[in-house]
């Protein structure tokens, strides 16, 4: 002890008076470890330990060093067992390891263990660190021990087991587990003397578990243990914050039965919680508990917002009116939230433009109420109403409101123009959309892709691809990226007009505006358009360019190309593309063969037409009505009545059923040969 006192005095760790006042408890037994001897021995003789001991030039680890490692890893029980083993085997004790263990137990608020190991170290005259003495809290140690003197011997064992569970559940760390509440209930059932302060301590520990705190408070009330009004208020407010409104309502009744008058804050919290649940009945009930001077705007704002989100304009307007009657004075922010809820599409809607007209009318009614109550609308208010008109398809009203905003010098930004232009594009008001986009550019506002793409889409929808092409060029000049589908539609229009060079120039422009790069659809339009004009070389060149871009053709593309060559009387080219289709490992379709059969029939080459017809079963394809019709038409053109009759019989015996247009086609084919009757 003299060595300990001398070392501590020299290092300034603890005074002699502190050492003399330190409580002397039993030092013979520290806390025992629950793990078995086998697990420790297995760990010590593990391959890693044995190998390091065999091959390392250093000395093997001692039990004290192993205990220090376990403390660093957080295995305090295992370290305690190792130190107990050292004491029993009378090995030299390491003061540093004891200091680490005491500090670790104290950090975890396990003060009984910390005090026990502190006394054991002092009995062995070890020089402990000052941090170990500073970490141990004697007051916390007494709280950990508990009132053992109130129980008999058997009850004392149960008490310590329960205290251990409470400690492991976090009682001493301020977060009480369910075991603490179970202990209090068990103590009450065993008719043990329980004080109200015990429940207060438990309730304070349940700050992160309001459900358990409410149960504990109800239990204390049933035992007629008087609780403070502040305790009720804190638990009720915590329940409201976590959404436990039923628990909070029950505690309000219990509080009233205990003779305490709930504060207005409690009623306001419950009212706010019911408003968050959209429970109009609950909001009405708790509002009735408050005086007009005690109300707040939040419940009225929430209820109006939720009714607006459901499109209930009358109910939303009524809640705002009640807020004005209660002299709560809803401000611009409150009205803007309600207006935004009206202009937002229903939850689960696939598109933001599927807004019912009644919701836009509700936003307009709220806007008018706002003006009537002398609340000056701001730019956000106008923006929400404008968005509602545009999304519901009320384009004329949206244009009128936009003009009013400009006349009143309301701050009109890009969002307002985008909403207006998208609404006009959806209504196919291409000319009007172009006018407003031009005005946006004149006003020196930064028009983005949304505005330009809306105008381009409106022109493409009405088939005015030239105007759409002009706006696409303006987008590229402004370093904006058009939508890929718009490029493809312009290319398709150029192909249909027979302007392949212009179509290819648009594809070249696509390459310069990533990420809207050419895709399979872009090349499909070009290659099929070249095939329809019989330009085999251009079709092959563009197809090769497509393959260089690592785009894989599909059966639809080959079908359109073969059909185009067949209709342009380029029979050999169509046959070559059918072979290329097989070379690209794309399985041919019935439409490909039908195009070849029709081409041969028009050229009155019945032998080749029958050849391609017979290829269908070989390719595991089923001939359809078009296949038979093309072949029979070829027979009629060559006046092969018997063959036409035979093919017609095969058609009737197959799954295909010819209709009236089929027979009318055969009659027209016979008329082309100067005949007046179809084959029998």
Automatic annotation (TrEMBL):
Residue intervals passing through the bilayer: none
Ion transport keyword on record: no
Keyword vocabulary terms for this entry: Repeat
A Pfam short name: PPR
UniProt PPR repeat ranges: 228-262, 378-412, 448-482, 519-553, 554-588, 589-623, 624-658
Record-linked InterPro entries: PPR_rpt, TPR-like_helical_dom_sf
Keyword Nucleotide-binding: no
Superkingdom field: Eukaryota
Gene3D superfamilies: Tetratricopeptide repeat domain
The protein's name: EMB2745 protein
Species of origin: Symbiodinium necroappetens
Gene name in the database record: EMB2745
């Amino acid at each position: 002890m003299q060595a300990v006192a001398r070392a501590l005095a020299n290092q300034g760790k603890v005074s002699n008076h502190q050492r003399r006042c330190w409580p002397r408890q039993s030092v013979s037994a520290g806390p025992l470890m629950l793990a078995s001897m086998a697990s420790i021995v297995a760990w010590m003789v593990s391959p890693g330990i044995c190998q390091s001991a065999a091959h390392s030039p250093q000395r093997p680890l001692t039990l004290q060093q192993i205990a220090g490692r376990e403390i660093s890893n957080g295995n305090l029980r295992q370290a305690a067992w190792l130190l107990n083993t050292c004491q029993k085997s009378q090995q030299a004790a390491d003061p540093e390891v004891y200091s680490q263990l005491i500090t670790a137990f104290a950090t975890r608020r396990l003060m009984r263990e910390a005090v026990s190991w502190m006394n054991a170290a002092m009995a062995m005259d070890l020089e402990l660190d000052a941090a170990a003495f500073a970490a141990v809290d004697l007051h916390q140690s007494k709280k950990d021990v508990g009132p053992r003197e109130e129980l008999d011997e058997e009850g004392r064992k149960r008490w310590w087991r329960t205290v251990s569970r409470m400690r492991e559940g976090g009682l001493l760390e301020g977060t009480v587990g369910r075991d603490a509440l179970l202990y209090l209930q068990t103590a009450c059932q065993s008719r043990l003397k329980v004080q109200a302060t015990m429940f207060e301590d438990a309730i304070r520990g349940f700050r992160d578990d309001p459900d358990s705190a409410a149960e504990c408070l109800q239990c204390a009330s049933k035992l007629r243990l008087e609780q403070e009004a502040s305790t009720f208020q804190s638990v009720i407010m915590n329940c409201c914050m976590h959404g436990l409104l039923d628990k909070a309502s029950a505690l309000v009744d219990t509080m009233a039965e205990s003779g305490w008058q709930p504060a207005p804050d409690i009623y306001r919290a419950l009212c706010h919680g019911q408003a968050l649940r959209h429970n109009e009945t609950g909001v009405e009930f708790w509002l009735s508990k408050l005086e007009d001077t005690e109300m707040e705007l939040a419940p009225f704002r929430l209820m109006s917002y939720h009714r607006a989100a459901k499109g209930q304009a009358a109910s939303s307007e009524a809640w705002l009116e009640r807020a004005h009657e209660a002299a709560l004075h809803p401000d611009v922010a409150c009205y803007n939230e309600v207006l935004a809820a009206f202009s937002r599409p229903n939850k689960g809607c696939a598109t933001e433009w599927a807004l019912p007209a009644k919701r836009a009318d509700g936003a307009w009614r709220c806007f008018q109420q706002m003006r009537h109550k002398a609340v000056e609308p701001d730019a956000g208010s106008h923006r929400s109403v404008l968005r509602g008109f545009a999304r519901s398809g009320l384009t004329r009203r949206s244009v009128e409101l936009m003009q009013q905003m400009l006349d009143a010098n309301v701050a009109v930004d890009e969002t307002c123009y985008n909403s207006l232009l998208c609404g006009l594009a959806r209504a196919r008001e291409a000319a009007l959309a172009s006018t407003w986009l031009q005005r946006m550019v004149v006003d020196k506002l930064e028009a983005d892709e949304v505005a330009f793409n809306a105008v381009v889409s409106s022109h493409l929808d009405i088939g005015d691809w030239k105007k759409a092409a002009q706006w696409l060029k303006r987008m590229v000049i402004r370093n904006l990226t058009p939508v890929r589908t718009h490029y493809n539609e312009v290319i398709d229009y150029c192909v249909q007009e027979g302007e392949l060079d212009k179509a290819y120039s648009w594809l070249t422009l696509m390459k310069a505006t990533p990420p809207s790069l050419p895709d399979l659809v872009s090349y499909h339009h070009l290659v099929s358009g070249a095939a329809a004009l019989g330009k085999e070389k251009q079709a092959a060149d563009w197809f090769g360019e497509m393959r260089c871009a690592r785009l894989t053709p599909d059966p639809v593309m080959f079908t359109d190309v073969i059909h185009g060559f067949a209709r342009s009387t380029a029979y050999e080219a169509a046959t070559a593309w059918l072979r290329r289709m097989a070379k690209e490992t794309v399985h041919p379709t019935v439409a490909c063969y039908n195009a070849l059969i029709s081409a041969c029939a028009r050229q009155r080459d019945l032998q080749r037409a029958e050849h391609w017809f017979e290829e269908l079963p070989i390719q595991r394809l089923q001939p359809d009505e078009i296949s038979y019709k093309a072949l029979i038409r070829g027979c009629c053109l060559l006046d092969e009545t018997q063959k036409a009759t035979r093919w017609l019989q095969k058609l009737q015996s197959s799954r295909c059923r010819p209709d009236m247009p089929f027979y009318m086609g055969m009659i027209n084919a016979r008329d082309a040969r100067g005949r007046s009757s179809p084959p029998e």
